[in-house]
Amino acid sequence: MIDKPQGKLIPTLSLFSAFMLTVSSVIGSGIYKKVAPMSLELMAPGLVLLCWVMAGLITLCGALSNAEIASMLADSGGEYVYYRKIYNRFFAFLYGWTSFSVIRSASLASIAYVFSQSLNSLVPLPQFPDSIASFSILGIFTPFDNFGVKAVTILLIIGLTWVNYRGLKGGEGLSRNVLILVTISIVLIIGLGLTIGGGSFTNLATPAAGYEEHSWFDGAFISHLFAALLAAFWAYEGWSTTGYLGGEIKNPNRNLPLALVFGVLFVMLVYVSINFTYLYVLPMDQIVDVAQSQNTIAAVAVVKHFLGAGGGLFISLLILLTTFGATNTTALMPPRLYYSMAREGMFFSSSAYIHPRYNTPSNAFIIQAFWASMLVLSGSFDQLTDMLVFASFIFYGATALGVFVLRIKMPDAPRPYKAWGYPIVPALFILFCAALIIITLIGKPREALLGLALMLTGIPFYIYWQKKLVKG
């Protein structure tokens, strides 16, 4: 129980700010890197672009479904608040715990790590000698391996935590300004790539050597298609986190749904345009070669192709700027979820504290930074990110199902926004979520089962906090 003086969360964000935060929470390293592994899976430019469009449309279906519930139940905590109303306290807790232990903390760690890797490619960071770097805990965790990159990653997490700890406006303003610079730079790359990039529409129509045409119902093709979609979904991941700020958005029942829907539409437009440019400029064989080269990024190869070494430096700096902004937005929003859980006695009690001067969930920021830093040091968070899409789509599907549940449970409740295409759009999204979960369980059982196991680690905490509530 927090009994010292507190502040409160204040609705200060406009529709434009919420829109910018939605976009900033999505556009990260995926826009530069994912076209290469997707090309390796599919071997054909048209199929790669189709995957970006499909992933965008499926994400949009999720956003349209999420928007109806947000228009009814907008509050700090996002889906945690929604699930408590739609299902029950336990399912809401399971979502919040999974977000803390796997989804959001690992996202923060991984995006910050990409920033540090990019910095290391420009300015080599100091490392420990092998005698120290090879030290392991239980033969699994190697905290001193690649330590220069890990140290910068943790410093970035701490620094951006400090910015957001000191007020929502500062963190939101930083994300907004970085996103404006990133968007201008991406538009510049698209414009130059399509005009002076030396590309050809022939590149868009020519598959890679070794490409074999398959039926759409062929099991091998479906496996490759879903592998490519998983890569694209990682690039689209994060759009729903704006819902965590429901208590700090002006007129949230109207502005939050609009921010989600138009944010996803904008991201989809950017992703399809930039990937069209990549595939227009470079032949598919060269992009497949990038995927097979461990330390090469597709966007760097494309821009170097038409702007030389100076272009390579420009895109490397742009990747730094983009991942910096995405890390900031990823750090900014989840503590509102942990605050909402703690306020109801379902998380570490100190997380319910609102700083009296900065009006932020300051302790929740500190807890998040600590856990994300532990994931960085463990060296195991890359494996956790393989589970992010799997775990996320369990809950994305649950939110879409909630549209149907609330139409039955609360038929007369005001709905400032109603899901476009209901019941077809949310139903199709639920079916896709189920398909992705099943295919991941079959194709990547280790990652899927480990993800489920991490979700279930929250059960002892739930029992403990539930007992405290009963006694209290």
Description:
There is one protein chain. The protein has 472 residues and is mainly alpha-helical. The protein has one domain (15-471): Amino acid/polyamine transporter I (Up-down Bundle). The protein has 20 helices and no strands. Helix 3 (35-42) crosses helix 4. The model has no long low-confidence stretch (mean pLDDT 89).
CATH architecture: Up-down Bundle
Q: CATH H-level name... which superfamily?
A: Amino acid/polyamine transporter I
SS elements, strand count: 0
Helix content: over 70%
Total domain count = 1
Main sheet makeup: none
Shape type: globular
Look at the structure and give the CATH class: Mainly Alpha
Q: Identify low-pLDDT runs.
A: none
What is the beta-strand fraction? under 5%
Q: What class do helices, strands and sheet pairing give?
A: mainly alpha
The average pLDDT score comes to 89
Order of helices and strands: HHHHHHHHHHHHHHHHHHHH
Specify Rg, calculated over alpha carbons: 22 Å
How far is the first residue's CA from the last residue's CA? 10 Å
Number of helices: 20
How is the CATH topology named? Answer: Amino acid/polyamine transporter I
